[in-house]
Amino acid sequence: MAASRMRSKRVEMDEESSSDSDEEYTVQSALEDWHYGKSEQTITNYTNRVKQFERFLAAKYNKTLEKAKRKHLKAYFTMLNKTCSQIRPDLCILRSMYRHFVKVGLAKKDPTHRFKVAQQLPAKQSRDLSSEQVRKLFAEAQKKRSKVTFAILQVLTYAGIRIGACASLLNKDVVRRIDDKNVEHYSLRVLKGKGNKSRCIPLKQSIGKSLHAFAAIQAKKSVFLFPGRKANAPLTRCAVHLRLKTIAKRAGLPHVSAHWLVSTLLSSTTLRIN
Predict the structure, then answer these.
(1) What phi, psi does 105 have (nearest 5°)?
(2) 152-179 confidence digits (pLDDT tens)
(3) Which of 12, 52, 110, 242 registers the highest number of CB atoms within 10 A of its CB?
C-alpha cells in the first residue's frame, strides 16, 4: 500500500513539474533559445526586425507572435511597402523564428510555410570593382587626409569583413609575426564575426605594415583601432558606413558599399593592386 502511494505521489509530482516547465516556456525564452550561437550583430538585427513585426501585430490585430497567421504576414509586408528584395530578409528571419516556435511547441503552425515573394531580379550591374575604381576610392581618402577613413578602406577592401566587425577591431587585432627567415607576416584577428566565429585573416605585407603602424599610433589614444568620439568606445556601424559612402560619392561611385568591397576581394581584383 505504502509503495503504491509513493508511486502515485511521484507521478503527480512529475506531472506538476512537466506542466510547470511548459508554462515557463514563453515567447521570450523561445527567442533566447533561437538566438543561441548567433553573433551579437545578428541577434541585434533579428531582434529589431522581430520587434517591428510584434508591434504591428499588437497594434492592428491585438495578437502576439505565436498567434500570427498567414494573413497577418501579408498585411505586414504590404504595410512595409518595400520591394521584393527588401522584404526577403524580413521573411527569412521570421521563417527561421517560426520554424523554431513550431519545433519547441510554442506555435502549432508556421505562418511562413510556403509563403513566397516574387523572384528577385538579377543585379543590373556587376558588384566587382575594377582596379582603377578601387584606386579612386583610396585616392579620395588620401585627399581628405583622414588616416582613419584610409585605414577603414584598407580593412574592408583587403580583409573582406563586415562593417560591424571592422568597427569593433582593437589595435592588438593587427598582428605582426616574423618567421625563421626574418620575413614579416601580417594578419587581422576578427573576434565574433559572422556566425559568432573568430578567425585570423592574412594581409598583404604592404597593407599589414601600414595598418600595424596605424595601430601603433591609435594605441596612444584608445584600445580600439577606430575609436569614436569617446576613446572608450569604437565607431558605430553607421559612422563607418557614412565614411565609406562619403568617399564613394566623391570618387564618382555613389552605389558602392561594403558589400561591393567584399565581392571585389573574392573576385581577387584587389589582390593585383600594389
Answers:
(1) 85, 10
(2) 999 998 888 888 889 999 999 999 999 9
(3) 110
What fold does the segment set 29-116 form as a domain?
Answer: DNA polymerase; domain 1 (1.10.150)
Contact of 193 with 161, CB cutoff 8 Å: yes
With cell 604592404, the residue in question is 206
Residue 20: the pLDDT is 44
Domain(s) labelled CATH 1.10.150.130 in the chain stretch across 29-116
- Region 131-272: CATH code: 1.10.443.10
Confidence of residue 192 (pLDDT cuts 50, 70, 90): low
Q: Could you tell me the CA-to-CA distances from 148 to 117, 215, 274 in Å, in that order?
A: 41, 10, 20
pLDDT on residue 231:
87
CATH 1.10.443.10 in the chain: give the residue spans.
131-272
Q: What b-and-e string marks burial along 54-85, b requiring 16 or more CB atoms within 10 Å of the CB?
A: bebbeeeeeeebeebeeebbeebbeeeeeeee
Segment (H or E) for 202: strand 199-203
Count of Cβ atoms closer than 10 Å to residue 50 Cβ: 18
- Using DSSP's 3-state secondary structure scheme, residue 272 falls into helix
CA 164 to chain centre: 7
Query: What pTM did the predictor assign?
Result: 0.59
Q: What angle do CA 64, 66, 68 make, to 5 degrees?
A: 70
